[in-house]
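Two proteins, back to back. First:
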Amino acid sequence: MNTLQIAPTILINVKKEAPIMQEEIFGPILPILTYKNIKQYISSHGKPLALYLFTGDPLIEKDIIEHLSYGGGCINDTIIHLATPFIGFGGVGSSGMGSYHGKDSFDNFTHKKSIVKKSIHLDLPIRYMPYSVVKKCLMKFFLKF
């Protein structure tokens, strides 16, 4: 019977140049990447939508978190990243901008309006040309606040 489903698939001996590693993966596919030096691995990869790192080494975990740009993820887990409403889900760079889930959804899809209202009763002439040395000094002074 045809169920239109893809069986979970593990890909081994995958190179970073492989077509599967050039696009975001949407499906039950897990490419296994190996490396000799974690620092080289970090510097040679782009910005994934999500990062799921399995390690018992706190130094590798720290290096990855601090030096690799990614949308979000988990250490030693995967599904909880999507299941919790307390952290956002979303990408950076070519994998998307912004995030959603919980409050992040509200913030991402809400337009905040801002406005500056200037008094009509007071206008400082130092704002307008011609600019003199004195006007420039006064402007620098007032713009520090």
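And the second protein:
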Amino acid sequence: MQETQPDPIISVRDLVVGFRDRTILKGLNLDIRRGEIMGFVGPSGQGKSVLTRTILGLIPKRSGTIRVFGQDMDGMSLGERRRVEQRWGVLFQHGALFSALTVKQNIQVPMREHLNLSERLLDEFARLKIEMVGLKPEAADKYPSELSGGMIKRAALARSLALDPEILFLDEPTSGLDPIGAGEFDDLVATLKRTLGLTVFMVTHDLDSLYTACDRIAALGDGQIIAAGPIDHMLAHEHPWLRSYFHGKRARAIVTGGDIHV
């Protein structure tokens, strides 16, 4: 019997996005299932982050449909769109923290915009988010310039969780981190996914993230999805870029039956 797949929490159909005379996404189709970590890969400069920003409404599309939580984003009123936006969190590649605000104040920005809370509750909720991402309590009063690269990622992750989102968008979350820090961040994301029931869409170049954190992977090529599935499916695919990416010189070694494969 064929396993029934859950309805997609995000569904993209025939998406076309471009800038001036260049078309970046060319009729792209992609489903992201509720409760999964979807890794999104592809050659540099080919539109991985463009897809994220288009879903978020930061880049206009030329045609196609984007449905989130079963709703067509084009058909929403401003109020409906704002309610949907409160149900997702975003971590941009370099954190995008406000440099003039402390970690606590950065986390409180979306809370102040969307929630009517007392200062006491704002401080308490910010403290909980800081603890949730593995930062020490004293990080609350530090400014971004006082944080390491790993701490900036965690502080930005805490801010993305400020409104208890159902979907988390991560843009190159482990870039700039050493292997240990990247592995710890992957573990944190996987733990948050399990404990909070998050759906995660993660743009990444990190092979270790794809192997250890992602339930499925989608690969972008020439503006479309060239393959999507679990890691075994991607490893077996014959597309030239996928072969080079997953089996090239920097491919991750896999140990099976006492033998080492790449």
